[in-house]
Amino acid sequence: MEKETLVKDLHFILDCIQNYDQLSEQTKEQITQDTVEYTRDNLNPGWLEYRKSVSDDFTIVEWSDGGDSFYDLNNERYYDFLGGYGIFTAGHRNPEILEPVLKQLERQPMNSQELLEPLRGYLAKIMAEITPGDLNNIFLTSGGAEAVEMSLKLSRLSSGKNWFISAVNAFHGKSYGALSVTGKDIYRKPYLPLIQQVQHVEYGNAAAVAAAIENLIKVGESVAAVILEPIQGEAGVIIPPEGYLKEVRAICDKYEVLLIIDEIQTGMGRTGTLWRCEAEEIVPDIMVFGKSFGGGICPATGIIFKQKLLVNEMVEDPCLLGSPTFAGNPLSSVASLATIRYMLKNDIPQMCKEKGEYILEKLMFLKAKYSEILVDVRGVGLLIAMEFAHPEEGYFTAKELFIRHFLTAGTLNNSKTIRIEPPAVISYEAIEALLHNLDEVFEMIRIKENK
Ligand SMILES: Cc1ncc(COP(=O)(O)O)c(C=O)c1O
Q: What pLDDT sits at residue 449?
């Protein structure tokens, strides 16, 4: 394509951004058509099929958001009961987060990379204050899998040991290290061999963790860390038995193995406490955080770890663990600082707890009413799952809800499960409307299947 045409095309979309609320019908149509065409030709045609799980209607393109909702190009409102898979705990475009971020954007969005970065310092300090026990030092990253990579590398670096124990069905991301400790066959198989020194054990079974460590030690191997989600999110919101994590903590102490807890999805208030570790009364050696840490405005993730893991080599060369260009950039740091302020000031964990309990109680009624369709509902805070007798019923439900302007979706590792993971600021009216629509959709399924 001619350079002039390319520049003209760039003008088109950038002018749309500049005048985002004054688009003509023709321009909206153009954006929609272009989006479908470019997704098919230059991203992956698979996305068009994949998105069908939510909608057959390719004319719907998302364009703006705010509070508990997002809006399409025609300014049609959709209630967000998926919450960006957990990134929107503080809501969409929360003004208390957005405003400081915009100020930072005006002044200095990215830094020189060479000097000390003040915001990173404040963020490190507040994280040491608000995380459990003696977790003290942070290392920032931009993506969840990247943070998990750092937790694995740090474990090996500071312990000098090799193996990792992880759980079947765990989800820790899809980069090589993170995928190695992820526990779902379809994501792992095409990339084998991954990190070889990983043993997956049954989730929720502390004795299995002890046995794996003991056996490895018996045959002369060394175990660096156990990595677990405190609730398995992508596996379908699997809540382990009470005391499981405490037992695993004791096992790790006994064998001098580090404990990594991946709070990327469960943390930042989502499960009714700021961190799920608090409710479980454990202090991991390394805690991984992400998703809503950037307030739904900037990508921001990282790890926080005990000071004893900061070995001399890391102090001598602070780039040894990693030196990601964009990690802890000023924009992301401001977003995280403002998110933490918002969460503390407004007791967002409590809000998640109360609304979560409300939804769960109502879902229990629906489960009793439609027991042949809905086989289980479970959750903690606003991390809730509905499990269906058959995956098709789950897909049908998500699709029907979307037609009625409620976004939900399945979980990555469990196709029978639909998650409900809305922003903490979701209104009770929206919750009532969702429940009412769920009731109607289940009735449709019952009629359809003659149940
Ligand atoms: C517990 C957990 N760990 C890691 C990840 C990976 O995060 P990202 O998608 O940002 O790489 C996820 C994403 O869903 C997650 O839920």
A: 83
Nearest CA to ligand 1 atom 4: 172
Q: Ligand 1 atom 16: the closest Cα is on which residue?
A: 265
Tell me which residue of 303, 265, 451, 278 sits closest to 372, measured CA to CA. 451
Residue-wise pLDDT tens digits, 89-148: 999 999 999 999 999 999 999 999 999 999 999 999 999 999 999 999 999 999 999 999
Q: Supply the residue whose CA is at minimum distance from atom 2 of ligand 1.
A: 172
Same domain for 302 and 358: no
Q: In the chain, how many domains are there?
A: 2
Q: Specify the pLDDT at position 51.
A: 67
Distance 144 CA to ligand 1 centre (A): 5
For ligand 1, pick from 85, 150, 172 the residue to mutate: most ligand atoms within 8 Å of CB: 172
Domain boundaries, position 146:
96-345
pLDDT at 260 over 80: yes
- 143 CA: nearest ligand 1 atom: 10
Residue 52 has pLDDT above 90, yes or no: no
Same domain, 160 and 294: yes
What is the phi/psi pair of residue 29, to 5°? Answer: -60, -40
**Residue whose entry in the numeric block shows the structure tokens 């009961």:** 81
Q: Give the per-residue pLDDT at 451.
A: 64
Ligand 1 contacts (CB < 6 A) are 85, 143-145, 148, 171-173, 229, 233-234, 262, 264-265, 290
> In CATH, what number is assigned to the domain containing residue 153?
3.40.640.10
Strand order from edge to edge, sheet including 77-80? 62-66, 69-72, 77-80, 406-407
Say what the pTM is: 0.97
- Do 136 and 238 lie in one domain? The reply is yes
Shared-domain flag, residues 191 and 333: yes
**Which residue(s) pair with 138 in the sheet?**
304
CA of 231 to the centre of ligand 1 (A): 13
What atom in ligand 1 is closest to the CA of residue 265? 16
Q: 328-361 in b/e burial notation, b at 16+ Cβ within 10 A?
A: bbbbbbbbbbbbbebbeebebbebbbbbbeebbe
pLDDT band at 410 (very low <50, low <70, confident <90, very high): confident
Q: Residue 59 sits in a domain of what CATH number? A: 3.90.1150.10
Q: Which of 301, 323, 345 is the last residue of a domain?
A: 345
